[in-house]
Design goal:
The protein is mainly beta. The protein has strands spanning 2-7, 10-12, 18-26, 28-39, 46-52, 57-59, 67-72, 77-82, 91-101, 106-110, 114-118. The strands form two sheets. Strands 2, 4, 5, 6, 9, 10 and 11 form a seven-stranded mixed β-sheet that branches. Strand 7 (67-72) and strand 8 (77-82) form a beta hairpin. The chain starts with a strand and ends with a strand.
Length: 120
């Protein structure tokens, strides 16, 4: 089985920074892509940033220039560096991974989420 676990959320003042981490573990053959999504209660989950196994990245317009996604391939980990945080960035942040298992099956794995609150 494969799972991903997020860490690094918390409370930060506007203009501050946080770094989220997400580690995948289990019977992993390879990871095609990893991404961060966020969701405010009552609203749809939205893509924040994604990164492929070729290091191609994609960002939501609302976070371009402030957030940076990166991967540590050796540790099956993805990071989200968030700078210049705004109150509207407050949400639960979810990690997603497209994993190819050792059986060559493709799995779409979600983490439990980590709360990010931007407030003075």
């Amino acid at each position: 089985q494969v799972q991903v676990v997020e860490s690094g959320g918390g409370l930060v003042q506007p203009g501050g920074s946080l770094k989220l981490s997400c580690a995948a573990s289990g019977y992993i053959f390879s990871i095609r892509a990893m991404a961060w999504y966020r969701q405010i209660p009552g609203e749809r989950r939205e893509l924040v940033a994604s990164i492929t196994d070729g290091d191609s990245t994609n960002y939501a317009d609302s976070v371009k220039g402030r957030f940076t996604i990166s991967r540590d391939y050796a540790k099956n980990t993805v990071f989200l560096q968030m700078n210049s945080l705004k109150p509207e960035d407050t949400a639960i942040y979810y990690c997603n991974a497209e994993v190819i298992g050792i059986s060559q099956s493709l799995y779409d794995i979600w983490g439990q989420g980590t709360q990010v609150t931007v407030s003075s």
